[in-house]
C-alpha cells in the first residue's frame, strides 16, 4: 500500500503538467482554416463554362499567380470571381493590375483566359485587344483535353 506522502507527490506532479488539449485544438482549427481558405481561393477560377477541347497543350496546375478572366456563354466577363460589365473591363482591369504586386513589371503580368466554347470570337477579341493594349505579355487560353472534360490544359 502506498503511503499518503507518495500520493501527495503524485498529485503535485499531475498538477505541474500543462494541458496540451487547447493547443492541439488551436492547431487543428488553423489547419482547417488554411485548407478551407486555399480551397476557396482556387474556386475563383471555377465559374462554370464549357471549355473548348484541344489535342495538345501544357498542363496547368492552377497555382500560378496568373489572373483568371472568364467569359461565359452569355458574354459576361468575370475578373477573378467578380462579374463586371463588358464596357467597364478596360478600367477595372487596369485598376486590378495596379493593385497587384506584379503590376510594376509588365513582363510579369500573366492572364489565364477561360472562354465558353459557344461564345463567338467577336466577343473575345475586344478582351484580347485590351490585354495587349495594357502590355500583358503572357496570355494563356484554358482548354479541356479532348479525352476528358477536366480543364487542365493551357494553350499559351
UniProtKB/TrEMBL annotation:
GO molecular function: transmembrane transporter activity
GO CC annotation terms, alphabetical: plasma membrane
Pfam families according to UniProt: ExbD
InterPro entries, alphabetized: ExbD (IPR003400)
UniProt KW keywords: Cell membrane, Membrane, Protein transport, Transmembrane, Transmembrane helix, Transport
Entry's transmembrane regions: 21-40
Localization, UniProt: Cell membrane
GO process annotations (BP): protein transport
Membrane topology summary: Single-pass membrane protein; Single-pass type II membrane protein
Family of the protein in this entry: Belongs to the ExbD/TolR family.
PANTHER family tied to this protein: BIOPOLYMER TRANSPORT PROTEIN EXBD-RELATED, EXBD MEMBRANE COMPONENT OF PMF-DRIVEN MACROMOLECULE IMPORT SYSTEM
The protein's name in its UniProt record: Biopolymer transport protein ExbD/TolR
Organism of provenance: Allorhodopirellula solitaria
